Amino acid sequence: MKLTQNQSRTKTLADLYRAIDRQHAVTITHLKPGETEPIVRTIEISDLRTTAVKISKTGQISGGDIEVHAMCRLRAAEIDQKKAAGEDTTGMTAARKFLLSDILSYTVHRIGYVLTRPTNTTYEPTPTAPNHNETALIWFELERDQDDADYRPRRKLTTEDTDLAA
After folding, report:
1. Whole-number Å distance between alpha carbons of 165 and 95
2. Which helix (H) or strand (E) holds 20?
3. Predicted model pTM
4. What is the CA radius of gyration of the chain?
5. Burial class (CB in 10 A: 0-12, 13-18, 19+), 72
6. Dist. CA 146–CA 124, nearest whole Å
C-alpha cells in the first residue's frame, strides 16, 4: 500500500498510468468531500483526465485536479445482486470518477481487468455521402451540419451522465 501523502503526485500518476497500461486492478482508499470515514474500493482504471480551473469573481480558485475514471468492482457486484433479485437495473453502471486529491492510499494489484466498460449507445454512424451528383452531395453536407460529425453527441451531456463515461 502506498500513501499518497508520502510521495509526489508524479509518482502516484506514474503508478496509475502503469496500472492502466498493464490493465491491473487498483484498490484505493479515498475520502469523499464532507465525509469523515474513508471508503475502500477496487477499481479498474480506464482514463485519467484533468478538470478545468475555475476562478470565481471573488478570486476563489476551484478545479484543476485530476479525475480517475474507472469501473468500480463493488458497484458492479451491487448491480449484479439487484439484477439477480429481479430489480430494474437499466441505466445503472459501475463507472465512477474519483479525484486524485481525494485518494489517501492505493495498491496496484496483479489482478487483471474483469469488468467490461459500457459501450456508448448515443452515437449513430454517419450515412454514406452520395457520389453521383454534386448538388446531392452539397445538400447532404448541409443536412449533416447540425450534428457536424460522429464525435458530437446527439443530446446534451451533463455531469450526471455516468453511463457515457469512457
Report:
1. 6
2. helix 9-22
3. 0.66
4. 21
5. buried
6. 14
